[in-house]
């Protein structure tokens, strides 16, 4: 039995059929690449699995059980994370704050800055990125921002991480780091 299955997925947008009865299985500990021309539906399929958009038809199953990731929070609870091609951050917040938006460690209603930085440094170390966690995101390169988004996905302890064109804004060195990271994640 496949770890994750997308079965008979269809998605239409006005004037466009993005996906038409697509089925695919993913095994635990495997890495897959979806390839195709622009507009072929690769990103749409990833967004459906990650709860960013809903399919018009079809089902998603994890270990044979049908799941309905109707939004990214539900997908995250199911162990699914996505690294988007489009980067979205709060530019005036630090790397540490952006890494943990929605899960900021707090004590009596106040953000625990020490714990915030410790967790952020641990995440950056886990992905092998040498980025100062106190730096405002506005001061980072696009490649560094991509690494922050990857660290955010890794930090959710996801069982499935979907990368939507992850190397499009990375340098050769950053791309090599990413491929090494994907290999390590595959083995967890």
What does this structure look like?
The protein has helices at about 40-50, 70-75, 95-100, 115-125, 140-155, 170-185, and strands at about 5-15, 15-25, 55-60, 65, 80-85, 105, 110, 160-165. The protein has about 190 residues and is α+β, with helices and mostly antiparallel strands. The strands form 3 sheets. The protein has a 4-stranded antiparallel sheet, with helices on one face. α4 crosses α5 (about 140-155). It is globular and about 50 Å long. The two termini are about 20 Å apart. The mean pLDDT is about 90.
At a glance:
The chain is built from 6 helices and 8 strands; from the N terminus they run E-E-H-E-E-H-E-H-E-E-H-H-E-H. By secondary structure, it is α+β, with helices and mostly antiparallel strands.
Question: What attributes characterize this protein structure?
Answer:
8 strands; 188 residues; alpha+beta; single chain
Q: Could you give the topology of this structure?
A:
Blueprint (H helix, E strand, L loop, with lengths): L3 E10 L2 E11 L15 H8 L7 E6 L2 E3 L4 H6 L2 E4 L11 H5 L6 E2 L2 E2 L1 H15 L14 H13 L5 E4 L8 H15 L2
Parallel strand pairs: 5-8
Antiparallel strand pairs: 1-2, 1-3, 3-4, 6-7
Helix pairs in contact: 4-5
- Low-pLDDT runs of 5+ residues are none
Helix content: 25-40%
Number of strands: 8
Biggest sheet descriptor: 4 strands, antiparallel
Looking across the biggest beta sheet, what order are the strands in?
Answer: 2-1-3-4
Estimate the global geometry from the Cα principal axes: globular
